[in-house]
Amino acid sequence: MTTTHEAVPPVLQMRGMSKRYPGARALNAANLEVRRGEVHVLVGENGAGKSTLMKILSGAVRADAGEILLDGAPVELDSPLRARKLGISTIYQELTLVPHLSVAENIFLGKTPTRWPGIVDRRRMRQEARRILDTLGVAIECDAPVHSLRLAQQQMVEVARALSDKARILVMDEPTSALSQREVEQLFATIARVISNGVAVIYISHRMDEVFRIGHRVTVLRDGSHVVTCNIEEVTAAGLVRLMANREVSDQYPRRQHARGAELLRVDRLDGGGLKEIAFTLHRGEILGIAGLVGAGRTRLARAIVGADPSRSALRRASRDGARRIVVRGAVEAIHSPADAVRAGIGFLPEDRKQQGLVLPLSVERNISISHLSALAVLGVVNHPKEHGEAEAAIASLRIRTPGSDQLVLNLSGGNQQKVVLAKWLAAHADILIFDEPTRGIDVAARHDIYLLMNQLVENGAGLIMISSDLPEVLGMSDRILVMRGGRVIRELSSQEATDAAVLQAALGVPA
Amino acid sequence: MTTARAGDLSAEAGARRALGSHSGRQLGTLAGLLTLCVILWAATPHFLTVSNLLNVLEQTALNAVVAVGMTFVIISGGIDLSVGSVLALAGICLALALEAGVPAPAAIGLALVVGTGCGLVNGVLITRGRLPPFIATLGMMSVARGVALMLAEGRPISGFSEAFRAIATERLLAIPGPVLITIVIYAVAHFVLTRTVFGRTTYAIGGNEEAARLSGVQVLFHKTAVYGVAGLTSAAAAVVLTARLNSAQPTAGTMYELDAIAATVIGGSSLLGGEGTVAGTLIGALIMGVLRNGLNLLNVSSFLQQVVIGVVIIGAVLVDMSLKRRRR
User: Could you tell me the CA-to-CA distances from A10 to A170, A200, A240, A296 in Å, in that order?
Assistant: First the structure.
């Protein structure tokens, strides 16, 4: 498809789009221009601003600044409904169909054709659905309940629904992540039909082979800014990766020299639950960074280590082949639950602090003591002065900003909440600490504070695992870096070898 | 940090907490209770007499005791609809044992074991069977009631020894036995909730079960135990009721679960879990008791009484929620 796209007017122009979240600048005057009938690929590493830009386009998020033009006319996208009415449809990774309704009912959800007011015109609905599905070239039964369809077919239904909205622009976010190769071919055929009708497709993907197969033009985002837009023939995969990775080097990461000590943790051929043959070691006095794209299995790995998702089959497997896969301080540990992990001295600081790390309606003090209440108690009665003393000491040593240890943690800022989670593990004497996205949603000053604390912990002999999608953070803080893709550890890089391009290449699976 | 210093700090923190959260909320409920008493004192000469007040306390004791277990369950983020039926079943077991000549202490022990056992079954169904608490305890509500009716063959069992009835008839320092028992149960429950690992864990599970689990808390064990507590307090109420009436009825305790939930919620517990105190629940139970008594004294029809009590429950929670929103 090498028609001269230059002749076609742009269906979408987004100019100077900016968006700030507390503690992070998601978009900084980003631009995007999309033409009718093209597949426009949007690439960038995690946090480059792709999702935010698309959320603005779909009306789910409002930009702080910038203007959006549809077919040359400025529009105000203040709600998802408005965006849909203007012909902008988004297909998310998580499908948004109603499982027990039929294909036709799903396609016309919210805009069911009626005969008399309130009476559904089933015949017309079915005919219309059939017509749309035919234009997509898919053979799906209109009356089939959606839950009986395969995932790829459900995706087609989503596409059909978008077309029934008279979509001008169709946004697809990683649509192939759960599809088999054959289903991917079907999807690509569908996309070809969609663009032949003059619809523009914005396609977000990390899979370089797909990008080059179906893309006409590509836009690279980096740090919330537009880097380049060009025809796909003008770039190579390696070139794209360089464009995505070439970030400004900043000195926000306090560098230090650590003396690597004895082995603290060894993971040996950890398998199952989406993880494949994971093996690595963690030593005292080091920060082990784990990089990878969203969905690479990093959080799953952390949860597997702390026994967060004990499944019966995993337990049975472990007891059957006797090969326990986690060795802590030289001793084999059977970690079947978070309680076992706490006993083994492993603390997990989850990415979602509010849902998984903290009991929000309880005080700072009680959140800190929760990990080791029994150790604080005599005959089941909590030694409150001791509990309180520990909390006060932690507030002082971790510089937690709170009016007092009895303040409810829901009133604390993100950075201070993270410190409370850390204090909880330090009070339980954990020295293997797994940070999952340690600074997500935390402002710059508090971030620096967290980094200093991490260094301090390492100097005192702890071993830290740091999962992060923030590449500069991984590069700036880690002594070693593991790169994960598809549930595997693909590469291990020393801090000397590690560059943003090297990590991204491994994470994306692009040859250098 | 020396222990003395830590002690100072904890006293200070305690004082701050009193002004800040739970206790502050309790002062509000207490003010509501006192206002209610003043109004009734002004409206009817019969309210503020020793005999009437003791009567109110005795009437309230049953609901108050059942509500203790309900408070544990609600703080843990659950609900227990079976407390009334479990009360009846424990009462029937107690009566059958007494009738068979079992000594009173042993019979009481049996009733407590039966009640706790029913609660633990609820707990296991909820934690191991992963049933929603509403469903598990709804089932137990029917099962326990049915078993109670079967054991008693549908009839009340009456006529117990003086020694047993002394639980309800004796007075200590002019305080009736049931009231005394209630006070002791509340003192113990308050201690358990605020000072022990079990109590702390109950709040943590109700506040955020997943975070508690990931912090190494044995969630399943504690949740099961919480329902055991509810069964235990229901059985304790059964003992008091049976002694007072000199009779155990398989239909006893009908609708008690709703009164207990009402007392707990009026007392400031959140049905979302993680919040609540037994002191608040006691005040909640007293508000309901005083209100019923007062409305009786004022000759308000029992139909209208139901309307008033419903309005009070809704009003109390509305006020509570708006106060909380302001605090945050």
Answer: 14, 9, 23, 35
pTM for the predicted model, two decimal places: 0.78
Looking at the structure, do residues A335 and A198 belong to the same domain, yes or no?
A: no
How many C-beta neighbours within 10 Å does residue A425 have? 26
The first and second tokens of residue A121, run together, are 């015109």
Q: Is residue A2 part of a domain?
A: no
Where b means 16+ CB within 10 Å and e means fewer, A99-127 reads eeebbbbbbbeeebbeeeeeeeeeeebbe
Question: Total domain count for chain A?
Answer: 3
d(CA B215, CA A371): 5
How far are the Cα atoms of B23, B43, B224 from residue B278, in angstroms, in the given order?
Answer: 11, 30, 19
Consecutive H or E run containing A277: strand A275-283
Which residue, among A312, A343, A351, A362, would best test binding to B if mutated, counting the most B CBs under 10 Å from its CB?
A: A362
Indicate whether A480 and A495 sit together in one domain. yes
Distance between CA B172 and CA B183 in Å, rounded?
12
Q: What is the β-pairing status of strands B171-172 and B175-176? A: antiparallel
Q: What is the pLDDT of residue B15?
A: 39
Interface of A with B in 411-430 (CB under 8 A): 411, 424, 428
pLDDT in tens, A444-475: 677 888 898 999 999 888 999 999 888 888 88
Domain boundaries, chain B: 64-277
* A107 vs A105: CA distance, rounded Å: 5
- Residues of B whose CB is below 8 A from A371: 215-216
| A376 and A476 belong to one structural domain | no
Average pLDDT over residues B24-45: 82
**Residue B138 CB contacts under 8 Å (≥ 6 apart), including other chains:** B81, B82
Note down the domain range covering A294: 261-345+431-512
Tokens, residue A398: 């971790």
Over range A44-55, report the average pLDDT: 83
Q: List, in order, residues 6 or more apart from B121 with CB less than 8 Å away.
A: B140
> DSSP letter string over A414-471?
HHHHHHHHHHHHHHTT--EEEEESTTTT--HHHHHHHHHHHHHHHHTT-EEEEE-S-H
To the nearest whole Å, the CA of A117 is away from the closest chain B CA by 39
Instruction: Give one DSSP letter per residue of B59-89, joined into a string.
Output: HHHHHHHHHHHHHHHHHTT---S-HHHHHHH
* Burial class for A1, CB neighbours closer than 10 Å (0-12, 13-18, 19+): exposed
Shared-domain flag, residues A239 and A363: no
Record: contact A382-B3, CB cut-off 8 A: no
ipTM of the complex in this document: 0.80
Question: Which residue in chain A is spatially nearest to B207 when comparing CA positions?
Answer: A359
**Interval B179-213: pLDDT, tens:** 999 999 999 999 999 999 999 999 999 999 999 99
Examine the domain organization and report whether A238 and A144 are in the same domain: yes
- Which candidate, A236, A326, A257, A286, places its Cα nearest to that of A457? A286
Which chain A residues are within 8 Å of B20, Cβ to Cβ? 406
A461 and A369 inside one domain: no
Last residue of a domain, one of A429, A451, A471: A429
Max mean pLDDT among A16-25, A222-231, B114-123 falls in B114-123
CA A113-A114-A118 angle, to 5 degrees, is: 130
Query: Is some CB atom of chain B closer than 8 A to the CB atom of A336?
Result: no
Residue B262: pLDDT band by 50, 70, 90 thresholds? very high
Residue A315: pLDDT band with limits 50, 70, 90: low
Cross-chain CB nearest to B274 (options A337, A357, A361): A361
